[in-house]
Amino acid sequence: MTCRGSGISSSINPAFEAELFSSLSDMSLERATYFESQLPVLAVLTSEADDATKVAFPLGRHLSTLFEKERAINRVNPISKATESVDERDTNVTAIGHYPTYQTHYLKATDTKLDLVPGGTNESSAASVVDVAQQWENDAPGSVIEFPGSSLKRSNASAGRNPYLVIKVDKALIRDHNDLSNPRIAEFISQLILVASQPPNLAVRKTQRQGSPAQ
User: Fold this and answer.
1) Which residues make beta-bridge pairs with 95?
2) What is the dihedral of CA 190, 155, 51, 56, to 10 degrees?
């Protein structure tokens, strides 16, 4: 499923090869840091229990790419300082959400009870969005952003506020390829869209928050 909000696009359990994301991954790695004003641009969510993209997808891709010429590419990660080897054979047969090198986050279920209306339509949800937005602005490698019912941990090898999010999702949140029933996922996506929809100017954002329920 693909969702599009103001300023961000998101996709859940997409069945496309990691190779199609290679250019964006390389581009995002060109910077070791992002400005505090940087907003999310893309979020790809894949359940760790999605066997359709984890098992069936590679089988089909192995057959269709059997005679393609591929090579391994080395790149230096500016965060970890390690040299990463990106094998085009692997990226060509692996769905984007299951390719570890490109994963930027892990979304874990928490025990928080959801008593909010998804989309920030009541006071408590609006306050939560403000809190999430501030956590995003303070994001760093290895940091955790708390959402209602879930927590988003950034990889130690991904720059803070890197706007291209490739998220491995706890099976407690998305049970399989077609499961979109968990309200915590709906709340996560709604709040991420609202964070991405903020004004690009950081000073304007902070001024607007002065009258929010969180202040």
Assistant:
1) 17
2) 110
Q: Where does residue 83 rank: exposed (0-12), middle (13-18), buried (19+ CB within 10 A)?
A: exposed
DSSP-derived pairing of the beta strands 150-154 and 144-147: antiparallel
Please provide the size of the chain in residues: 215
Residue 186: name the closest of 6, 1, 53 by CA: 1
Contact 168, 106 (CB under 8 A): yes
Residue type, 140: A
Residue 122 three-state SS: coil
Q: Are 72 and 85 in contact (CB under 8 A)?
A: yes
pLDDT in tens, the chain (215 residues): 655 555 799 999 999 999 999 999 999 988 889 999 999 999 999 999 999 999 999 999 887 777 777 889 999 999 999 999 999 999 999 999 999 999 999 999 997 555 544 444 444 566 688 999 999 999 999 999 999 999 999 999 999 999 999 999 999 999 999 999 999 999 999 999 999 999 999 999 989 888 665 44
Look up the pTM and report it: 0.88
